[in-house]
Amino acid sequence: MRFIFTFFVLLFTLLSVRSVQAQDPRLSQFYAAPLQMNPAMIGLFEGRYRFVANYRELYPAILDNNPYRTLAASFDMRFRMQNDDYIGLGVSALRDEVGQANFNRTNANVGLSFLKQLGGSRYRPYTQYLVAGAQLGFGQHGLNWQRLWFSEQFDSGSGTIDFSAPNGEDFNGQLSTDPYLDFNAGLLWYILFEDNLSMYFGGSIHHLNSPSITFLETGDASLDMRWVGQAGGEFPLTQGLSFLPAAAVMGQGEHLSITAGGNFRYSNRDWREVAIRAGAWVHVANQLEQGMGMDAFVVTTFLEMERWNIGLSYDVTTSVLARANNSRGAFEVSFIYTQPAQWRTNVKCPNF
Fold it and tell me: Minimal CA–CA distance to 74: which of 56, 95, 102?
């Protein structure tokens, strides 16, 4: 079919981009963290309101009790406008930290989206929407530099570190950056032919204002803009089995990160639907001067029970770092609760 061929051509184009790694936190279950992915995904679900929580722990085999930890949460809801157009409202927050010095970043924002119907309705064979969204919030980075030592504090005579000595740095006791304003915007288009046959494409830009994140009184350091491209869909294989391929590309500064793969979804096709998903994904990133390379292989499983969606995934390290951590990468869990909507305010959306 022509639209399936088009989907895979565009998916291959996304995977062909050269350059690597993202500075912002990355979630393997990007499709289960909608408001962290794209502001245009605010209100993009079949229900009245939605709550999402995500947790990721990366490299505990190397960093012991101080691994990369990412915790994200969001809440969004949708209101019907005239005809079959909608407005979505959402709030989201993220906390990311790592290391003995507890380097961390926190951000929170509020968002608004507008879902414009381009074709179809509940009485027609397909539904098509273009969604635009934006988020405005604040962020802050923190660092407990008192847990670090610097060359100025090293006593070469005794071979010891004097933590009480001046460190020669310009921290001036500052444990965090000044709070900064943050602005994100995005677009997403999707078409739903029937319940288990859909396609979507989207993109977003985060940190549009490139805010300052310096810890020092002098000098300057800004947070690079991050762009995101995403594509996916659902294609039926049998009456109860479908395949959900997807890809996400994130670029920030000189870095690029690509995650692609898919989940198989089996449903009992009952009015009280229960479904399970299982799939595999690859993460590709730059390997410094070595260029693009496969960083991790991800296995996933999901359980869907009416209003609940619980997902588990594990990243198996495939880069040279596998020698240090015995391929033990990241553990990730996601939780989604969706409150059903009345039929008058419900809108058909793809399965992500």
Answer: 95
Distance, CA of 95 to CA of 107 (rounded, Å): 7
Using alpha carbons, select from 50, 61, 132, 139 the residue that is nearest to residue 93: 139
Q: Which domains does the chain have, with CATH numbers?
A: 2-138+181-345 (2.40.160)
Q: What is the pLDDT of residues 78-135, one digit of tens each?
A: 998 877 889 999 999 999 988 777 788 999 999 999 999 987 655 566 789 999 999 9
The position carrying tokens 């660092």 is: 143
What pTM did the predictor assign?
A: 0.83
Which residues, in sequence order, are CB contacts of 253 under 8 Å at separation 6+? 23, 224
Q: What is the DSSP letter of 179?
A: P
Question: What is residue 47's DSSP assignment?
Answer: S
What mean pLDDT is predicted for residues 133-147?
87
Residue 13 has pLDDT above 70, yes or no: no
User: Strand (E) positions, 207-307?
Assistant: 226-236, 241-252, 255-267, 274-286, 292-305
How close are the terminal C-alpha atoms of the chain, in Å? 21
From residue 57, alpha-carbon distances to 28, 68, 329 in Å are 11, 6, 9
Nearest to 90 by CA among 130, 41, 54, 131: 41
Per the listing, tokens 């299982």 go with: 278
Instruction: Say if CB 180 and CB 211 are below 8 A apart.
Output: yes
Q: Which residues contact 171 (CB under 8 A, 6 or more apart)?
A: 145, 215, 216
Q: How far apart are CA 239 and CA 267, in angstroms?
A: 9
